[in-house]
Amino acid sequence: MVQLRGSATGGSLDEIDAAVRMLLSLKLSYKTTTGQDYQAGLPPTDLALINNGTTKEEDEDFVDPWTVQTSNAKGVDYDKLIVRFGSTKIDTDLINRIERAIGQKPHRFLRRGIFFSHRDMDQILHAYENKKSFYLYTGRGPSSQAMHVGHLIPFIFTKWLQEVFDVPLVIQLTDDEKYLWKDLTTEKAYEYAKENAKDIIACGFDVNKTFIFSDLDYLGSSMGFYRNIVKVQKHVTFNQVKGIFGFTDSDCIGKISFPAIQAAPSFSSSFPQIFNGKENLQCLIPCAIDQDPYFRMTRDVAPRIGYPKPALLHSVFFPALQGAQTKMSASDPNSSIFLTDTPKQIKTKINKHAFSGGRDTIEEHRKYGGNCDVDVSFMYLTFFLEDDDRLEQLKQAYTSGELLTGELKKVLIETLQPMIAAHQERRKQVTDEVVKQFMTPRKLAFEF
Ligand code: TRP
């Protein structure tokens, strides 16, 4: 039986939200195991037949900005997602072109398919090759103080993009979104935004080239920004957002109009102080693929309000410790490695919770080898171990059975411990004063 949390007097909004999501995901699991839609009171029929592999694989993955779920231990089928979302795969040709344009080895996230899909990246490269400028836009919803390593993926990559292309960057902290979706006061959401900004700044962004803003703070003070919000609002119907985001008649109107707020930073005129009022600068958005619905909407509206469509680079999800069926979530402490974890916590969590693709006994493991496709420690190493040759050696040794799960976990622990300690050290240097500098609307070190 599903246990709904919350007392007899009623749970908090957050709890109800979580319970509803859990029910939806149970319905999905029901459908993936039985092949049938869940109907209360009606037990599944013909189970034996359905379990014989007649379940449609297309039905297995669920991805939207709030939920990521699949029944496949290897994780979401990203090739299918590309087809479903209508984006384009980042192939070797594109990676080679990026390498030629920047004259450097592409980031390991590109080399390893972690950023795997795009929209109009060829246009960005064309602009860059012709000495035309563009800017970067990414963001984060500050739902709590606790950020985990998965949250760093888009920021690590954005920092690299900023460095190699030398372009301005705007980072949106959607504290308004978290106020609307979670059980939070506006004050708390704004506080989380400033706290999260410290972790983002600790990724190494250049203060002269980066503007970080809280929606609650910046929106009201920027005419350019608000004008773009209403322009988007005028060109998207309720019916469209229902179709894209699954909103229903009982969602508050704040949620229904929020997508316009996440769309607005894709247009350079939202930041007159940075772009000197220029309206037609091309924007590139690195983000996890679950944010794509916002930008599909944005790209649809852009030409109708006289702006260029933003280009996109999409990343895969960062898997939970328990396995790639879902992404790492800050609300489940055991599913995540937090940026505040001590070396000891990191070690214990990995040893205790990281899903293993190894065999049950050492004898079997030596004989049949481990499975890197489902092994979470190996997946994490593909994100964080820089050395390509070492990664390949580990893969071969694990697959052949020469390397045991405990040994693979040790490599991961020794990779993450210094990385997180270094992050904590850099974060300590980020004072409130530094945060204020990044968050002050101002001209950046670029002429427009
Ligand atoms: N909605 C995103 C979240 O909840 C935050 C966000 C806003 C974002 N703008 C963005 C993420 C642009 C990526 C790119 O995390």
Summarize the structure.
The chain is of the alpha/beta class and 448 residues long. 49% of the residues lie in helices and 10% in strands.
Please describe the structure with a list of short key phrases separated by commas or semicolons.
alpha/beta; 448 residues; globular
Descriptive overview:
Pfam families: tRNA-synt_1b, WHEP-TRS. Keywords: Aminoacyl-tRNA synthetase, ATP-binding, Ligase, Nucleotide-binding, Phosphoprotein, Protein biosynthesis. This is Tryptophan--tRNA ligase, cytoplasmic. Its EC number is 6.1.1.2. InterPro entries: aa-tRNA-synth_I_CS, aa-tRNA-synth_Ic, Rossmann-like_a/b/a_fold, Trp-tRNA-ligase, uS15_NS1_RNA-bd_sf, WHEP-TRS_dom. By secondary structure, the protein is of the alpha/beta class. Helices cover 49% and strands 10% of the residues. It is built from 21 helices and eleven strands. It has helices spanning 13-34, 47-51, 78-85, 92-102, 108-111, 121-129, 149-165, 175-181, 186-201, 215-218, 223-234, 238-245, 253-263, 272-275, 292-301, 343-353, 362-368, 376-384, 388-400, 405-429, 432-439, and strands at residues 62-63, 68-69, 88-89, 115-119, 134-140, 169-173, 210-214, 282-288, 311-315, 319-320, 323-327. The chain has a seven-stranded mixed sheet, sandwiched between helices. Strand 10 (319-320) and strand 11 form a beta hairpin. Helix 18 (376-384) crosses helix 20 (405-429). The protein starts with 12 loop residues before the first helix and ends in a 9-residue tail after the last helix. Residues 138-141, 172, 174, 177, 262, 285, 287, 291 line the site of tryptophan.
